């Protein structure tokens, strides 16, 4: 109960708004690593077949929306939990999904293809026996692969983003992948070294759909259907499809200049890297400050004379230190809104996640730091007539905090690195920025090398600052 109350208090303090399906500005999620349907162009703007359809319909039907890019599974769960109003992400319409979503007019018919590394000796599905197939969670390609797995005797490995999946096949860790035909063809146009094995004969052709939570946002769904009928009738829809499937990928991705060198990638994506870095720094600062305050409070509670207060501290530390950070992030961002009836912005959910997780670790070493002070110090203070509280404040805490300084420094660095996990809930920090850039230019090695160097520079600066603070406290 204490934890739920704390979460509710923090969420209200950070300006969370009530769910209102009638609000004029809708929140729409997407998987922005799914070209040619959803991706970032060379100007770091979200584009693709899905996005142009949505943008055109919104303009004609007079509604506005805020786009929230994240992994496909997180995007769909955001809608079912009420965090978002709709999802458009090359989402196949299936009977299972119809149980939880209401779909608009189907807008694109696709089919499943399978691909292998260029030069691979695999020629047919029978050759996959005993081999490993990489699939993307939640996709129609994954469903099809699993449906024929026993027949052809292959193993599967799962990924949440397309670029990592493709590179797993290219690097030989897995031998094939299944996915939507136009998506595979587009990524190959963009330089991915794969070969589609059934380009003219896709399996299980199906339709993509725009989806809202079942029973919700009927007004938005009606507007989409009306707008789609109009763009289909006047030829706008076909122009959009032809624009992305007919032109070379480099026209949208700028891949020719991006691929030239590390400097070229830095120059063409300078704004994206800076925005991602700034978001990472903000998350780190908020996380460090509030997690430290929360951790110190938990540590003080942990050495209280009151056994109930000590028990509360121990329980909170045990729960949040033992819970994986990503699970906690999903619980707060996707699970909690359904309980408290409010939307939680992704940034707010990320900060709360850091506070609870990092604060639990901080609370553990703060409690340990206080307990590490020689017991004779407390006895001496009490013999001088100090109360327990005054003894803690005047004698134990100053000595304990000095002991804890190295632990605080280490926790600050851990907090900075842990912000990368929050990309899973759609926060556009440095790691998510790298994912979006790689999905556009397929230059995983160069982009992730740049990201790694940026993290190392920031961590080095934070370490220098922390060491300076440590020296000042000990002088």
From TrEMBL:
Keywords tagged on the record: Cell membrane, Membrane, Signal, Transmembrane, Transmembrane helix, Transport
Subcellular location: Cell membrane
UniProt domain ABC transmembrane type-1: residue ranges: 277-466
Membrane topology: Multi-pass membrane protein
Name the record gives this protein: ABC transporter substrate-binding protein/permease
Record PROSITE patterns: ABC_TM1 (PS50928)
Gene3D superfamilies in UniProt: MetI-like, Periplasmic binding protein-like II
Organism: Leuconostoc pseudomesenteroides
A Pfam family per the record: BPD_transp_1
Transmembrane portions of the chain: 277-303, 315-336, 445-465
Family annotation (PANTHER family): ABC TRANSPORTER MEMBRANE SPANNING PERMEASE-GLUTAMINE TRANSPORT, MEMBRANE COMPONENT OF AMINO ACID ABC TRANSPORTER
InterPro entries tied to this protein: AA_ABC_transptr_permease_3TM, ArtM/GltK/GlnP/TcyL/YhdX-like, Iontro_rcpt_C, MetI-like, MetI-like_sf, Solute-binding_3/MltF_N
UniProt keyword annotation of Ribosomal protein present: no
Family, similarity comment: Belongs to the binding-protein-dependent transport system permease family.
